[in-house]
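We store sequence, tokenised fold; for instance:
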Amino acid sequence: MLSYFRKRFWDEEWNVAIRPHVDSGMFDTPMRFQVLENTWRYWCADPFVMDWHGKTYIFMEVLDRCTQKGSIGYRVIENGKVGPIKICIDTPYHMSYPMLYRLGEDILMIPECHKSNKLTVYRAKEFPDIWEPLETALEDRAVCDTNYLKLDGEEYLLTMPVDEERYIYDTLELHRRNQEGKWVLCSNSPFVPGTESARNGGNFFVMDGQLIRPSQNCGNSYGEKLVLNHVLEISQDGYKEKVIREITAADIQVDRKQFDGIHTFNCCESYDVIDLRRRQTFQSAKLVYMLRHKFRKGR
């Protein structure tokens, strides 16, 4: 009975953490972050961050403990104060990794939603609350944790195909938008960096003049470490990078809670954001949801 209870109602949980943006010595340890508290019903992961009209917006996966399904939500930081969690995109499928970027006058997002079997790009119709599908970048494809990059006039998508049978995070694909506006697979794809560095862990960013790709080390467990990769080449003919740094939860200094995993880093002019894992937490919302469902079913 005890083992059933622990298996059913104890699970890992993620928290988003923030700090004022650091330019010099960005990854000098220990890195001091402020953990944003989850709510009774929701926990948050995969943070992406953007400054907009004097405020900072953190978009993230918001997982409903009751249904175990993720939606896309956000929190606003204004005058140093962090607002409540608000949901902005919800579909019948689990969603996560809201990769956020600007293109011209538009604010765009590519959330992970591999169960839909397509990769959808969303455009903010009324930022930050209302989003509409702009295009289907990849059709009849299950992919996850996609990054967008515009470099030297070319547009790229770096994504990971999902194999439901193997469910191993070791392969990447590079797609380029061609002259007809369609996304085509580059000649070097797919390629296999391995489970220690393949899966994206945040958008590309520039540090000390180098293009950096954050990725996840899932070699021993999901969300074990964050990896920083220096991108050496990205083109329709090739992709090359080298690992320059690994970051663990032990490198992060926070108050109170003990964490044992990290798998996302993003930044903007105002803030840096990460997420942190606690492997075993009691999910009381799941218990209440189950009891409520049984009570209603029995009436």
User: Anything to note?
Assistant: Residues 119 and 138 are 5 Å apart (CA to CA). The two ends are 26 Å apart (CA to CA). The helical segments are 2-9, 284-298. The chain has a mean pLDDT of 90.
